[in-house]
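Exam revision sheet. Question 4 asks you to relate a sequence to its structure. Input first:
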Amino acid sequence: MTPRTEAAERLLAELPPAPAAWCSGLRKKYRRQTAVNDVSFAVGRGEVVGLLGPNGAGKTTVIKILLGLVRPDAGEVLLLGRPARDPRARARVGYLPELFRYQPWLTAAEVLRLHVRLAGATVPDGERRECLAAVGLADRAGDRVGGFSKGMQQRLGLAVALVARPDLVVLDEPTSALDPIGRADVRDLLLSLRSRGVAVLLNSHLIGEVERVCDRVVILDKGRVAASGTLAELLGARELRLRLDGVTPAAEARLAAAGRLTRTADEYIIELPTTEQGPGHSTNQTASQNTAQDTGQDTGQDTGQDTGQDTGQDTGQGPDAVPDLIADLVALGVRVHAVEPGRISLEERLLDILRTGSEGDRR
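Answer key, structure tokens:
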């Protein structure tokens, strides 16, 4: 090995690892229907990223493109720094599809053995048993799959996705057939994968599960990225719920000046703006605003990780904003019965983003 080669290898070793998954400008059209339109995002090493959106948003198509199961009309995909169709990259990816079926005459242990062979991997019997134990099937290893319930089938599917020790795991609705205990088990499993540096791309309609385990979220709508970011970025807005009586027009104007205002009977809800917002401004992020921070480049730099900047901080009005608001309302003759600060949920933010997008389409 020449000194120049050694220097080049040292330089490569010092570079950060490539994102586990990276895509840019993905487009896919089925006849006249555009399923995916200019989708770009990344999944960093050891990161759990949630893929959200309504039915028909293009989530499953994006997953199939990432895995090389569907060829895009345009765009680029890298898995672990290699093209998606490279067998060396695909061998390091574990996948649980939304719909799957195993040979009913095989036992759970035989299903794992088969998929290890298909992956071209070498996994000792002890590790395969540990994999079944991790999904709660340790005592069913010798049972035929044909007698498994839907929940047990889904647990087995998780074991299949994990058995070859992947660096990236792609899960399409992994908890849809599981009971609350099973969902808690999957949450613990995902957190364990993250702690070991395994990247996870999670597609799920169970928004509460996504909110509990994901570091970042990508929201698709009509084939496009409607918003993306960390949970802190997407949920940065805070809510203030007030029960008031005797609200005059001047008092209502003061409420509206504090943030986006909605009213139900005697309850007034104010969405307090974040640092980059003014009152009444929505925190939705468009695909164009997120492309630069989420996609990275094919130099192997991992931009999928959180930058550490939390755009969900309080507004520049400072910590006295809420007390000052209450004082002003009292001075205006308003009777304040209750003050309840809070933070919006991921479900509320998702609905807000989708509704805002739909209103924009109609305009």
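Marking note for examiners. The radius of gyration is 24 Å.
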